[in-house]
Amino acid sequence: MGGLAAGVPWREAWYDALYGRAGFYRSTSGPAGHFTTATHGPLGPVLAGALLQLAADEGCGRIVDVGCGRGELLTQLRTLDRDIALTGVDVVERPTVLSSDVDWLVSPGGEALPDAFAGFDATLVVAHEWLDVVPCTIAEADDTGRLREVLVDPATGGESLGDEVTDDEMRWVRSHWDTVAPGDRVEVGTSRDSAWSDLLGRVRSGVAVAVDYGHRGGERPAGGTLTAYREGTVVDPVPDGSCDLTAHVAMDSLDHDELVDQRTALRGLGVQGAPPPRQLAADDPAAYLRALSHASAAASLTARGGFGDFWWALKRVG
């Protein structure tokens, strides 16, 4: 990639592209206008049902959804349970379509949480695809094996190498993503670990779960995972505010009690993808169609090569 050149550190350009005044996540359409997550469409009710079961298992009377978009998951949760307390956290103002009994906190964006996010008791905090959009340092090993920060031109996406990473970042790399081969890229997880620790410190009692696509030690991708999406299509990562920018999370570096793939997590919460018995179609066609839709969504949420490969990092607090 050559020697020193002008540019902006990817972490800074990434933050501004997503959370700046004209950032991607502040657009009118919101994330749902560009990509689908497990909180959208027919998958949402099944995921919501599993989270309600987790909250019940853990004795939690409130669910907080961090990085909740326009409240899609919160809407599904409220539909299924009229009594549980709900709070959404995102960078935009409260959506007008959201039920009036759902609390809302406006976040600064990235790893920063609002001051009012604090003191939760008996609460399940869900960070669903939040940490993958917490900007992190992108680094690359140069021809001599030194790990240097990658700089980017926000207008074109053109890259160059900057200074060596900081001592703290290098310690994280040696512990979690050691690399020496020239050309290898690392998405340094210090900002994600810090964001997660900050979140945990704001909960007095309950459980927090980070749900994201990620990887573990021994499975780190040598070329990194920085990716961009625009209108449902994968595009070149350019931090100009026109596309989503995301990178997989080093899930095992997060403070956790349990780390399992989504298939295991959801099946443990009663989500099964088996189709309903055919006889139900004759006895109650409407019930059969509802059960078939539920089974199809459950199969999608646990599918290999798709949502089922997500990771759940769960941490109990207090």
TrEMBL record:
Xref: InterPro entries: NDUFAF7, NDUFAF7_sf, SAM-dependent_MTases_sf
GO function terms (MF aspect): protein-arginine omega-N symmetric methyltransferase activity
Keyword field: Methyltransferase, Transferase
Keyword Hydrolase assigned: no
A biological-process GO annotation: methylation
Protein name: SAM-dependent methyltransferase, MidA family
Source species: Pedococcus cremeus
